[in-house]
């Protein structure tokens, strides 16, 4: 399949004061194919939302290139062209409570984007479109004139999804869309997103803070730590064979459904706090917490390398300096 979105060496720094720079995103590269879901996972503050917001041009990148549908968009400013592709890229927010204006009816909320992006649409057509969108996301036409507070959390997230879909985007950044919802509702929203993806041929960047729900929806998963990608592989591969010690720790934190398995399993508990991205550790940024760190880890930054086919890792245990792969790139157990 074709690549829809390509990110090369994306860096986003925020200058907090004359001598304080928040290195939110540092030299991140990946692509997303048409119709694919890329999961982007990491602890809060690792820069994953900043990646999503920079893709949607809510932030201007400090450096790096973003290409969308074959065009470089990272150097664009507010022009006509900007409007044309912003309708192609939409966002679903984490918090369905604060992301919907409490004084607007559902119809007004969903119509907003249509008024901006399709100003020639007659009011009647626009209203009909809103009705269709409500049904598409599993709400009823009768609810069109209600206000956000009259809905449950899951229903509000459905409204947020309808709003994103109103302008017929091809790419959606879903920024922790289920994190604020009850566990019982999470699967419903994930299933809705997957169904809409199939129907509308959507491409997703699905952001999550842990690995528990992303496997189901993601074709591939990228793991972030302190502003950098540290592992990227297909979901099956990542769950079956995590290579980076941080990914191993994240995976070991997911509760297993079988209580016997759960008891027998060894949980990797990371020591220490996530370091401050204003002053990240030298060498491998994970070395202050890594249970497998070796001598060079604090001194030399590992390179994000394709260690196995389509499986990228940023860790000294693999690749050139590593001890886990033999000459034929076969895994050697240590
Ligand atoms: Fe751990 Fe070293 Fe690998 Fe970093 S490079 S994850 S510190 S083993
Ligand atoms: Mg976030």
List keywords for this structure.
alpha/beta; ATP binding; 12 strands; eight-stranded mixed beta sheet; ATP-binding; single chain; ABC_transporter-like_ATP-bd; P-loop_NTPase; 334 residues; four-stranded antiparallel beta sheet; Rossmann fold; binds magnesium ion; Oligopep_ABC_C; binds iron/sulfur cluster; 23% strand
SSE layout and pairing:
Blueprint: E1 3-17, E2 20-33, E3 37-41, H1 48-55, E4 63-68, E5 71-72, H2 80-86, E6 89-92, H3 106-117, H4 123-136, H5 153-165, E7 171-175, H6 183-200, E8 203-208, H7 214-217, E9 220-225, E10 228-234, H8 235-240, H9 245-252, H10 259-264, E11 305-308, E12 311-313
Parallel strand pairs: 3-8, 3-9, 6-7, 7-8
Antiparallel strand pairs: 1-2, 1-4, 4-5, 9-10, 10-12, 11-12
Helix pairs in contact: 3-4, 3-5, 4-5, 5-6
Bound molecules: iron/sulfur cluster and magnesium ion.
Domain ABC transporter: 5-251
InterPro entries: AAA+_ATPase, ABC_transp_ATP-bind, ABC_transporter-like_ATP-bd, ABC_transporter-like_CS, Oligopep_ABC_C, P-loop_NTPase
GO molecular function, one term: ATP hydrolysis activity
Written account of the structure:
- Pfam families: ABC_tran (PF00005), oligo_HPY (PF08352).
- Belongs to the ABC transporter superfamily.
- With 334 residues, this protein is α/β, with parallel strands linked by helices.
- The protein contains 10 helices and 12 strands.
- The chain has helices spanning 48-55, 80-86, 106-117, 123-136, 153-165, 183-200, 214-217, 235-240, 245-252, 259-264; strands at residues 3-17, 20-33, 37-41, 63-68, 71-72, 89-92, 171-175, 203-208, 220-225, 228-234, 305-308, 311-313.
- A hairpin with a 2-residue loop joins β9 and β10 (228-234).
- α3 (106-117) crosses α4 (123-136).
- The chain is globular.
- It binds iron/sulfur cluster (SF4) and magnesium ion.
- The site of magnesium ion has 3 residues, from loops.
- Iron/sulfur cluster binds at residues 244-245, 284, 286-287, 290, 292-294, 297, 302, 315-317.
């Amino acid at each position: 399949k074709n690549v829809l979105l390509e990110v090369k060496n994306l860096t986003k720094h925020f200058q907090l004061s004359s001598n304080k720079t928040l290195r939110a995103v540092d030299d991140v590269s990946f692509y997303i194919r048409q119709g694919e879901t890329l999961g982007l996972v990491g602890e809060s503050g690792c820069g994953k939302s900043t990646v999503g917001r920079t893709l949607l041009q809510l932030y201007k990148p400090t450096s790096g290139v973003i290409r969308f549908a074959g065009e470089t968009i990272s150097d664009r400013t507010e022009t006509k062209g900007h409007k044309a592709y912003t309708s192609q890229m939409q966002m679903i927010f984490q918090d369905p409570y604060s992301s919907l204006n409490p004084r607007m009816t559902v119809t007004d909320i969903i119509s907003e984007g249509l008024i901006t992006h399709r100003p020639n649409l007659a009011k009647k057509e626009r209203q009909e479109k809103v009705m269709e969108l409500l049904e598409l996301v599993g709400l009823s036409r009768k609810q069109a004139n209600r206000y956000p507070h009259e809905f449950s959390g899951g229903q509000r997230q459905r409204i947020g999804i309808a709003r994103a879909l109103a302008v017929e985007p091809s790419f959606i950044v879903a920024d922790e869309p289920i994190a604020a919802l009850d566990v019982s509702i999470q699967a419903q929203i994930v299933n809705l997103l997957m169904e809409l993806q199939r129907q509308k041929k959507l491409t997703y960047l699905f952001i999550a803070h842990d690995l528990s729900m992303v496997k189901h929806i993601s074709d591939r998963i990228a793991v972030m730590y302190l502003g950098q990608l540290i592992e990227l592989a297909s979901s099956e591969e990542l769950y079956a064979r995590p290579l980076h010690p941080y990914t191993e720790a994240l995976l070991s934190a997911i509760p297993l459904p079988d209580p016997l398995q759960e008891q027998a399993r060894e949980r990797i508990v990371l020591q220490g706090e996530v370091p401050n991205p204003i002053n990240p550790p030298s060498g491998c940024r994970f070395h202050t917490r890594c249970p497998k760190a070796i001598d060079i880890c604090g001194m030399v930054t590992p390179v994000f390398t394709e260690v196995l086919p389509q499986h990228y890792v940023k860790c000294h245990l693999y690749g050139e300096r590593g001890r886990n792969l033999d000459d034929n790139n076969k895994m050697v157990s240590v």
